[in-house]
Specification:
177 residues; 7 helices
Length: 177
């Protein structure tokens, strides 16, 4: 039954969601990672009363849209507890249609997410936050090494367009923290 629900899943509707698709959210994971369920972005906060502060967005795949309480998907996921990673494969908590499909923040694809907007002051203290359901489009799937390399001046095709609009601001927020 869970597999049938997953196979019949469709794109989540835009209604009731904040549109984050033009914000260059990026996923950053290890080179051998197999799931891409979180993305990040930052910008300097231009609010006059927060000089030197930052606005961050942390987005995670909106799994709850697809896995409804007490559904067969929910019960199977609860039994499994989590995804299990082996050197050569993954046994996902959810059927593949969801774990590698609608609940994976695949680059250049619209995906529903839960987003946390975080505002930090210049000292790195959280001064406000807001949570929302949103629709995002990952602008890239990057590795830790690619992001560090881009920050250090080693630019690749995958990072070239993202250094100024995503990677450098993330490092700015990191320094603030």
């Amino acid at each position: 039954e869970a597999q049938d629900i997953a196979d019949k899943s469709k794109a989540a509707p835009m209604a009731g969601r904040e549109d984050l698709r033009n914000i260059p959210l990026i996923t950053i994971d290890g080179a051998d990672s197999r799931d891409f369920d979180d993305a990040v972005w930052a910008e300097p906060d231009t609010t006059p009363d927060n000089n030197g502060g930052w606005h961050l967005i942390v987005a995670i795949a909106d799994v709850a849209w697809y896995v409804r309480p007490n559904s067969a998907l929910d019960k199977d996921a609860y039994q499994r507890g989590n995804s299990v990673y082996f050197p050569d494969r993954v046994v996902p908590m959810l059927p593949e249609a969801l774990s590698n499909g609608w609940c994976s923040l695949v680059p250049k694809e619209d995906r529903p997410c839960m987003a946390a907007h975080l505002w930090l002051n210049a000292e790195g203290n959280l001064i406000r936050h807001r949570f929302c359901r949103a629709m995002m489009r990952s602008h890239a799937r990057l590795t830790y090494e690619q992001v560090q390399g881009a920050h250090d001046g080693v630019i690749e095709d995958a990072t070239e367009m993202l250094v100024e609009k995503a990677i450098s601001p993330l490092y700015g927020a990191y320094k603030c923290l």
